[in-house]
């Protein structure tokens, strides 16, 4: 989880990612931010994030991102 927070802070350090729950729905992360995030997550955690995973529920919070990463690592 700490690495996810670090990646998110590299994208935009003005957001309290530990509390924010609407990163996508609240338009906090733009499309470039999401693309950067996906690329960083794939590299850091050696996972592949397919198009089916690209839904707001998986990216609205650091906790949701972490849950997605853990699930993808199990596959």
Can you give a write-up of this model?
This protein is mostly helical. The chain has a single domain (2-74), classed as Non-ribosomal Peptide Synthetase Peptidyl Carrier Protein, Chain A (Orthogonal Bundle), CATH 1.10.1200.10. It is 56% helix and 0% strand. The protein is built from 4 helices and no strands. Helix 1 (2-11) packs antiparallel against helix 2 (31-45). The chain is globular.
Q: What is shown here, in short?
A:
The protein is mainly alpha-helical and 75 residues long.
CATH 2nd-level architecture: Orthogonal Bundle
Overall number of strands = 0
Could you report the average pLDDT, rounded to the nearest whole number? 97
Categorize the overall geometry.
Answer: globular
Biggest sheet character = none
Number of structural domains: 1
What CATH calls the topology is Non-ribosomal Peptide Synthetase Peptidyl Carrier Protein, Chain A
Which blocks of ≥5 consecutive residues have pLDDT under 50?
none
Give the C-alpha Rg: 11 Å
**CATH class descriptor:** Mainly Alpha
- Look at the structure and name the CATH superfamily: ACP-like
Strand content is under 5%
Order of helices and strands: HHHH
Structural class: mainly alpha
What percent of the residues sit in helical stretches (DSSP H or I)? 55-70%
Q: If helices are DSSP runs of H or I spanning 4 or more residues, what is the number of helices?
A: 4
């Amino acid at each position: 989880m700490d690495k996810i927070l670090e990646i998110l802070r590299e994208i935009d350090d003005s957001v309290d990612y530990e509390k924010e729950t609407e990163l996508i729905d609240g338009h906090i992360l733009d499309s470039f931010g999401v693309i950067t995030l996906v690329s960083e997550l794939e590299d850091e955690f050696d996972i592949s994030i397919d198009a089916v995973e690209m839904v707001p529920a998986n990216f609205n919070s650091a906790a949701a991102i972490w849950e997605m990463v853990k699930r993808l690592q199990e596959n």
